[in-house]
Amino acid sequence: MQPKLEYLTTGQGRKIAYRHNKGRAPTVVFLCGFRSDMTSTKATTLMDWCVSNDRDMLCFDYSGHGQSSGVFAEGSIGNWLEDAIAVFELLGEKEKILVGSSMGGWIAFLLALRKKLQVAGIITLACAADFVSDILIPALSAADRESLNHTGVTLIPSEYEDRPYAIGQTLLDDPGQFEILKGPIELDCPVDLIHGLEDRHIPWETSLKAIQRLTGSQSRLTLIKDASHRLSRPEDLEVITRLLTEMIDKTEYAV
After folding, report:
1. Which stretches within the chain are classed as H helix?
2. CATH of residue 50
3. Which structural domain range is residue 108 located in?
4. In DSSP terms, which residues pair with 186 in a beta bridge?
5. 21-51 CB burial, b ≥16 within 10 A, e <16
6. CB-based contacts of 139, cutoff 8 Å, min separation 6
């Protein structure tokens, strides 16, 4: 059973939807992917596991996603990081394990770099670090760029939805200040990166780059031979849950 839906208002006035299962520490914070939300298979599977095992967990929707306020096309990495920080601070001083899916993996690293003392570990699932600059912008066609110049938005086809979705200039303007793969990622907490070798959206080499940039942390990369970007098959979810259990056990042992 999923916890009740609640809302918080960020310092920027955005209304963020979240669900919080109160249980044993550390708190698992799930960070969704680009255009995903807390109804995704991975988010609900981990929440169900935490409920069943009396574990503290919080998941939420970024602004412009799911049941939070805002328009998706007006969003940006900076805005969504602000949303994540507001949710993080709602939990107080408890130690937290960040689980980030796709873009959520990027947000998890950015969040951990700003809140190092409260992050006990990170798990990324098909980490999409720097994807705006490295993947999204280079893929824009001349027609996309013309639409952005004239209207501030362009429509992008989606493999997961019947209709294309709109991205705005705000998303494309700010990624440079949030890129993490061009220098060291200075974190001391353990990091587990999981990526599928059949991922056609974010190459597995992105996770390899991230682990190569990590300094001073206990990190490992798990590659799943036949897994896609979603990592939502039962066997993928079993790997994710197992690694989360191991990280929780390490955190409790350290305490």
Report:
1. 41-52, 77-90, 103-114, 131, 137-139, 142-151, 169-173, 205-213, 234-254
2. 3.40.50.1820
3. 5-130+181-254
4. 215
5. beeebbbbbbbbbbbbbbebebbebbbebbe
6. none
**244 domain residue, yes or no:** yes
Tens of pLDDT, residue by residue over 56-70, are 999 999 999 999 999
Count the Cβ atoms, other than its own, within 10 Å of residue 215. 12
Residue 93 lies in a domain: yes
Q: Report pLDDT for 244.
A: 98
**Residue 131, CB-side half-sphere exposure with 13 Å CA sphere:** 22
Beta bridge partners of 165: 156
Token pair of 30, please? Answer: 């799930």
CB contact set of 101 (below 8 Å; sequence gap of 6+): 30, 31, 32, 33, 36, 40, 42, 43, 124, 125, 126, 231
220 Cβ contact partners less than 8 Å away, ≥ 6 residues apart: 191, 192, 193, 211
Residue with tokens 């209207």: 151
Instruction: State the Cα–Cα distance between residues 45 and 96, nearest whole angstrom.
Output: 18
Beta bridge partners of 193: 124, 221
Q: Is 90 domain-assigned?
A: yes
What confidence score (pLDDT) does residue 252 get?
62
Q: At residue 206, what is the residue type? A: T
Residue pointed to by tokens 């939300």? 37
Count of structural domains, the chain: 1
pLDDT band at 216; cut points 50, 70, 90: confident
In-domain check, residue 65: yes
The pTM score is 0.96
161's tokens: 């939805």
Cα Dmax for the chain: 57
